[in-house]
Amino acid sequence: MSSVIQASAPRTLPKGLPQVAALLIVFLVNWLVFRDFFALRLQDGRLFGSLIDVLNRGAPVAILALGMTLVIATRGIDLSVGAVMAIAGATAAALTAEGYPLPVALAAAAGVGLACGLWNGILVAVLEIQPFVATLILMVAGRGFAQLITEGQIITFVSDGFAAIGSGSFLMLPMAVMIALVMLLITHLVVRYTALGLFIEAIGANVRSSAYAGVGTKAVTIAVYMWCSLCAAIAGLIVTADIRGADANNAGLWLELDAILAVVVGGTSLFGGRFSLVLAVIGALIIQAMNTGILLSGYPPEYNLIVKAIVVLAVLLAQSPVLTAVRAVLRRKA
Amino acid sequence: MKARHLLTTIGMAALMLSSGAAYAQSKMTVGFSQVGSESGWRAAETKVSKIEAEKRGIDLKISDAQQKQENQIRAVRSFIAQGVDAIFIAPVVSTGWDSVLKEAKDAKIPVVLLDRSIETKDDSLYLTAVTSDTVYEGKVAGEWLAKETGGKCNVVELQGTVGSSPAINRKKGFDQVVAANPGMKIIRTQSGDFTRTKGKEVMESFIKAEGGGKNICAVYAHNDDMAIGAIQAIKEAGLKPGKDIKVVSIDAVPDIFKAMADGEANVTVELTPNMAGPAFDALLAFKKDGKQPPKWIQTESKVYTPETAQAEYEKRKDLY
Q1: Top-level CATH class of B134-271+306-316?
Q2: Which domains does chain A have, with CATH numbers?
Q3: A245 and A157 Cβ atoms separated by less than 8 Å
């Protein structure tokens, strides 16, 4: 536990500075390649502009990153979130297309999400299978499960209520952004205003000594995986509602990697322990701001992944402990 | 319920297997190594193959390779061992087929390739290949647009997955038309990964980058799904898809017909899921009097416009 508390060593950059700076720099670059990047106007009662696109398109990964942050803080990882998105979306779309009312469809999707999380949690916490392998099972099987629900087709539905989750608006902001904000608030309150956040960090730092100290490590770990899968289910509902159809082959495909990247860019270590929800969300926004910038710039699509890799590398280098030490040495000499 | 569908499908499959065994002597048996079920089109192709086989009284055994060549090779070997009358392969990759096709040839079992071709030095290893011409599809889409707009149009292009052969070829075919019409220009092109979500996201940024969509005359999408995503992006920007921005795409899946019937899309070029039909016909002719079919049977790339959209939708919705 002590390593958790005395963590903020001197000479490091203020917490969050690399992430916020990176986001601002990406915004600036976007503005340079596209001068109307910050332009906003009202369209059908909601704000409309590239900046809003970044928030709106970044929302699903931001929501995934919330759950993923907690899982990674316990020294775990959840590779199945993309597949869970597909399952939840397919469940809700299939039920809606069959004529079930919206609350039933949403509850079923959330229920399926929680069940997936329970499965992951039991594999990791009770059977003590390595998280990477344990969640890999659902990553592979889950997409097949979603394809069984959709029979390999895109299930389209007609429901203004469901569609509003993806493309509606609330207080002039896209609904997806509002949902992400609410999820951030709830997650933050639950982990920071109870002892839960401390338990999670303790499990990540040392699971055995946490158990000796009286932390219910198994229950907390299972709860964390369930929360992560619930976040994935919500993200799945958003992307399904956005295109008014469940595409089991592609929904959430590779998004687990974006979510993990967002968490790591947000400064949370893959070795568990301290975590930051807000910075993970900023990490998700950095990734999306880059995607949007590339689309606006008009570069050939072959460059997309290279540009993305370079920016991510820069953010990670800014946080590297070794480079921080080198910087300190250089400063002392100067 | 979908679950009930599934149960009936399994039940039917079991029935078909048992009945297939009973009639094996009297009926022609064809083994079909299908790629997998990576897209709605692929599922439709499997379904159409079954229907076409039934029409001709052929017993079709389908093996799902789950996108893996080794599974396909294993399936072909087991078809050879079962002594089927012919083998269909929808090859997942274009190389590495020579040795297993040689085994089929030695067993005197004709092989027909469906929807993709292979690279081999010895083209006697297969009877024929039934595929579409994806370059031609792009060209047909471009020609429709050139005619519709009098050869003057600023086009934004939604490409398929970077590096995939349909994306490369559909771009190539369309570019040929653009090169022939000085008034036609591709002002933006990006990859939408063949998906609705990415198609929508990329179109959103195109609209913003091109003065709120005012400079855009048409969107050309390499498949219908990206076009459907783009239609939603156009609507959310307060523009009318099909009118303010024309929507041109390829594949002819049912949902694009729905959009055309609503006046939100203008044209689609068909990539027919019926590859098995022409393959069966060539095979039956070959079996009957040894008539060698051409090495490449090209499927038709038909153009569909809103006039027939409602009827075409009704025709297709059960296939997909």
Answers
A1: alpha beta
A2: 2-329 (1.10.3470)
A3: yes
